[in-house]
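pls design
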């Protein structure tokens, strides 16, 4: 959905991951479902990377990417939409940190600092994980509007082990009216 009233819309950045089933198809379907929501526009997407699992290691490799949304929803509403999409795409929560058909994490939302049982913004671990930071950097490096986030991502990238355990899967997973795909 194109959000016409940009003065009322906020930018939100999300991380997407999948390591079960048709991983690329599931990521695309999650983006379609987000963009089909009347108060959400998928404005930009990163490249997609195949990544070694972090934390719980005995599980398949992930596909990871990031996206920038424009939305007129408040953070809790956006979170509920994301959780419903995860469930609709077959996400179950059997093993904490275990394999998943899809994972949608709200990372950062313009002007929002929150610490509630359901949602912490900015996401508390977003600056520690290469599988989040590298895709996120694909998008923020092009976005003049989010300069604070861009600087924090660039600084955090200096402290991590580069792109070890990550390889490019595809440069362009999202074609529906996006500004760019993080080239
Ligand atoms: O936190 C998201 C789920 N997750 C991932 C992931 O998305 N990618 C990689 N490479 N490792 C992960 N471990 C967990 S848990």
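designed seq:
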């Amino acid at each position: 959905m194109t959000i016409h009233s940009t003065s009322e819309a906020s930018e939100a950045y999300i991380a997407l991951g999948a390591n079960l089933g048709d991983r690329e198809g599931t990521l695309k379907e999650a983006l379609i479902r987000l963009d089909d929501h009347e108060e959400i526009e998928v404005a930009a997407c990163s490249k997609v990377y195949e990544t070694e699992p972090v934390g719980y290691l005995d599980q398949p490799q992930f596909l990871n990417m990031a996206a920038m949304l424009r939305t007129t929803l408040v953070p809790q509403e956006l979170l509920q939409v994301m959780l419903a999409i995860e469930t609709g795409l077959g996400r179950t929560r059997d093993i904490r940190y275990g394999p998943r058909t899809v994972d949608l994490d709200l990372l950062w939302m313009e002007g929002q600092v929150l610490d509630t049982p359901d949602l912490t913004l900015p996401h508390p671990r977003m600056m520690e994980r290469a599988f989040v930071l590298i895709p996120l950097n694909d998008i923020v490096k092009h976005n003049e509007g989010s300069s604070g986030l861009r600087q924090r991502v660039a600084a955090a990238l200096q402290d991590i082990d580069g792109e070890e355990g990550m390889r490019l899967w595809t440069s362009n997973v999202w074609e529906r009216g996006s500004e760019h795909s993080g080239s």
